[in-house]
Every structure is written in structure tokens, then in C-alpha cells.
Design goal:
about 220 residues; alpha/beta; Alpha-Beta Plaits; six-stranded parallel sheet; five-stranded antiparallel sheet; 11 strands; about 25% strand; elongated
Length: about 220
């Protein structure tokens, strides 16, 4: 079980805190607005009303003890900068900050943010890739170049084995799993025969994956 600090309980911060809880983690949620804290208090491990621009508030939270600290303040970028900087100075292990623009991301990285999330840009990119990929049901970006996709089995592959299709040789991608219903099974045998009633979990460059899905 991991432990996380979420600072800023707007829509993004609240959704993040709740999802982290759903995944079995411990979450401390903090915001200076009482109503925001009240809405989420019974759904997280612990919560606190506090202005994290006040270094004493951060010290009292024991920021060194969390696996990661998320700075989800968006309306006040100056606040986001100050909190991010203070977290690093107080020894936070890993700080993730939210940015709405590239320039904001550069400032946050320059003062020590370990990772910056472009919420709107990331979502726009994700949607663009999914809708560009014919037959893609899910998409997880690993790097700007590589990703994992869930796709329907190409019609030309049905009834053939992994070896017969020559997946890696011909398409330069890897089929890493088979999804039937909600169950996913790792694909480890070259003799596995593809069927129509399943989805494939593939990994590779986005360029190669999109090319595969367009020649279905």
C-alpha cells in the first residue's frame, strides 16, 4: 500500500484522490476551502483544511512520509509554484504538479517538480490517438513514441497463430495479452491461434500500431 498527499481539491484533485483510494492506497487530502474538504473527508484516509502556501502547514503534514505529493492547484499558478518549491525543500520524495500550459510546466520543472501533468493537453492527445486508431478500445501512452493499445483482432489474423502471422517481423509490434470479456491473459506462446471473439493487447511504437489498425 502506498501513501499519497493531494493538495488542492478542485475537480481534478478530487477525482485523483478518489481514484487513488479506489486502487487501495492511503490518501491525505488538503485544501484551504472548507467545503471542498468536507465533501471528500469521508471518502479518503485523512483530510485537512489548510493553506499549503504556509510552510508550517506543510511541515505538520510530514511531506517526507508520502510516496508522492500531488500539487493540483490550477486557479492560482503562483500558489502552485510556491507549494511545489516548498515540498522539495522539505524533502518530499516525489512531487507531481499540474500545469495548463507549456510555459507553466517549464517553470514547475525548473523549481524541482519531478513530474508535470498537462491535464488538458494529455487528454486531448489521448483522445486524438484513440479516434485516429480504427478499432482501438483503450490506449495507454508509455512515452511520446510508445504505447499500449487494446484492439479488435484483425480479420486477416483470425484462425492463424502468432508465428504464422509473423506479428513482430511483419508489423514491428508485440501482442502481450489476450482479452476475453473482462479477463486479460498474458500471451506467451507463438502457437496461440487468434480468434474473432477476443481483443488483443498490443505494445509498440504509436506509428506502427496505428499503421496496423489502418490496414485491418
Amino acid at each position: 500500500m502506498k501513501s499519497f498527499l493531494v493538495i488542492g481539491l478542485g475537480r481534478f484533485g478530487q477525482h485523483l484522490a478518489l481514484k487513488l483510494m479506489d486502487l487501495g492506497n492511503e490518501v491525505m487530502a488538503v485544501d484551504k476551502e472548507e467545503d471542498r474538504v468536507t465533501r471528500i473527508a469521508h471518502l479518503v484516509t485523512a483530510s485537512q483544511i489548510g493553506d499549503c502556501q504556509d510552510e508550517e502547514v506543510l511541515k505538520a503534514l510530514g511531506v517526507k512520509n508520502y510516496d508522492a505529493c500531488f500539487v493540483c492547484v490550477s486557479a492560482d499558478f503562483q500558489c502552485s509554484l510556491e507549494v511545489t518549491c516548498a515540498l522539495k525543500e522539505l524533502g518530499a520524495q516525489y512531487v507531481v504538479a499540474r500545469a495548463d500550459r507549456d510555459k507553466q510546466a517549464k517553470f514547475l520543472k525548473s523549481i524541482g517538480a519531478d513530474e508535470v501533468i498537462h491535464t488538458e493537453m494529455d487528454m486531448a492527445h489521448r483522445i486524438a490517438v484513440r479516434f485516429s486508431a480504427k478499432g482501438a478500445f483503450e490506449y495507454i501512452e508509455l512515452t511520446p513514441e510508445y504505447a499500449i493499445f487494446e484492439i479488435a483482432t484483425p480479420k486477416s489474423w483470425i484462425g492463424q497463430s502468432v508465428a504464422e502471422v509473423g506479428v513482430r517481423r511483419e508489423y514491428n509490434i508485440n501482442v502481450i495479452g489476450i482479452k476475453k470479456g473482462s479477463d486479460i491473459t498474458p500471451l506467451t506462446k507463438a502457437g496461440y491461434v487468434f480468434s474473432e471473439s477476443e481483443h488483443l493487447i498490443i505494445a509498440g511504437s504509436q506509428k506502427d500500431a496505428l499503421k496496423l489498425m489502418r490496414i485491418r
